[in-house]
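TODO from last week: model glutaryl-CoA dehydrogenase (ETF).
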Amino acid sequence: MAQRLDPLDLYDVRSLLTDEERMVQDTVGRFVDEKVLPMIGDAFDQARFPAELVPEIAALGLLGATLPEEYGCAGMNAVSYGLICQELERGDSGLRSFASVQSSLCMYPIFAYGSEEQKREYLPRMAAGEVIGCFGLTEPHGGSDPANMKTVARKDGGDWVINGAKMWITNGNLAHIAIVWAQTDDGIQGFVVPTDTKGFAAQVVHKKMSLRASVTSGLFFDEVRVPDSARLPNVKGLKGPLGCLNQARYGITWGPIGAAQACLKEVLDYSEQRILFGRPLAANQAVQIRLADMARRITTAQLLSLQLGRLKDAGRLQPTQVSLAKWNNVRMALDIARDCRDILGGAGITTEHSAIRHALNLESVITYEGTETVHQLVVGRELTGINAF
């Protein structure tokens, strides 16, 4: 009799990983199983970011994981980083968001665009979780149009003075530094702004129904003065922040796979135990068809992200490819989370089960780092050569 396939990995994608990649996945997976899953439902209920997990996340080498060892980082490849995101989001999107922002949106721009002094000053401490960052690009009125930026930085002698506001900023009230993008007389530039600088304020966004186990903030800049040494010297224009977003979006193509796997596993267990009309729910044809469709979509997403990671490691990744995978994989996970919530029936509306929590979180994931529509239009532009934005 043929061996039964892994219901969460029907195409044995794991066999395509290297030993090191499997070790990374297993290590993060154990951390999620042992430390995250027992408490994350309560953290979501309480709208509390589990900051007590940060030291262990750092100790496992998950912050800035792909950056070089000379800066205190793990020097992993892109596929390993993707697997980190997948396992963390199997726990909760808020935890993966924390790691994504720290790694891709804060440490990456310092590494890619910063001075050697900035790299030495910040990256080792950020990898250790001693310095937390946030990324200030999105503005209250801006959304999908970052070029319409109102935050400005003006030169004043040897300093820069920043005025403006940013919105929907993950880690804002946790952060020790903010990577802030502002209009200057010489185009958009980035600045590393310590959050204890005079004139800087962060305000927590309350009443969230999504990413409740994550800190979301507004940032406000009132004559915030920083020296020129705070400016990221090696990039100008929108390509700076968009390059960071491309790094983060890559990880986001992997993360929702974990959320979808968590929902499918939960509903598989439930449907085998739930007896209706004298038989398990899993024996119902309509339920089996829905479960099969979930497995099909998860398998497609796994193969998309793995090939994306291989392209990234080969230096051949294109932004359109990231957009396609972000669009497909987040939509996949959101649809699966909603369907799993439905199969769970009334029990599915409580955070005793994970489906409703993942569904609510994914409503944010499908919006941030480029909305679904934005990524559809990026792919459309690639196909036609016409910019329809």
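Done. The chain has ten helices and nine strands.
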